[in-house]
Amino acid sequence: MDMSHGSSDGSTTAASCQISMLWNWYTIDFCFLSEQAHIRSVGAFVGAIVGVVVIVIALEALRRLSRDYDRQIKRSFHASLAQIQSDSSIKDELPAVPLFRPTFSQHLVRSIFYTIQFGTAYILMLLGMTYNGYILFAIFFGGFVGYLLCARDTATDHGDNSAAGRGECCV
């Protein structure tokens, strides 16, 4: 009985996906998440690695956009509050520390940012669970480059010395 899985008529069979739950360095016939993402050449593998790096950098950029949006809606609130407080006729009616709460539409935008971030991070986690060394290093490298390019704002002093401005909880 021939167990070679070969074909006697000269035709070739499609290569199957190599999937391993152990650390591996597969490059050819490797599948990401599904059979449709089957890597059949070195060029396709390099493209996939570059794609993973770009996705992680894009995730960090999206996180930055989300933080910038949060800052923008807080600035807008404080600007409108300052304008209201300048009106002396209603100044005494305002609470001492007005509570900032995003409007429904602002929170909807924030929720969309969060959902895209969560979904992207989940897909990256699934890619990491292929235990492919190249993919894992691409995720780490993309995280490094993305943070380097997009997260400098987290250590920036915005001139707000309040507990809320410093990012502290429970003002």
Overview of the molecule:
There is one protein chain. This protein has 171 residues and is mainly α. It has a domain at 30-63 and 101-152. 51% of the residues lie in helices and 2% in strands. The protein has three helices and two strands. It has a two-stranded antiparallel ribbon. Helix 1 packs parallel to helix 3. The radius of gyration is 25 Å and the shape is elongated. The model is unreliable at 1-13 (pLDDT under 50).
Briefly, what is this?
The protein has 171 residues and is mainly α. It contains 3 helices and 2 strands, in the order E-E-H-H-H.
Topology diagram in text:
Elements: E1 30-31, E2 38-39, H1 42-85, H2 104-128, H3 133-150
Antiparallel strand pairs: 1-2
Which descriptors would you attach to this protein?
single chain, 171 residues, mainly alpha, 3 helices, transmembrane helix
Low-confidence stretches: 1-13
Residue share in β-strands: under 5%
Shape, principal axes of CA atoms? elongated
Oligomer: single chain
Largest sheet: 2 strands, antiparallel
Give the % helix: 40-55%
Protein name: Copper transport protein
Organism: Microbotryum lychnidis-dioicae (strain p1A1 Lamole / MvSl-1064) (Anther smut fungus)
GO molecular function: copper ion transmembrane transporter activity
Pfam families: Ctr
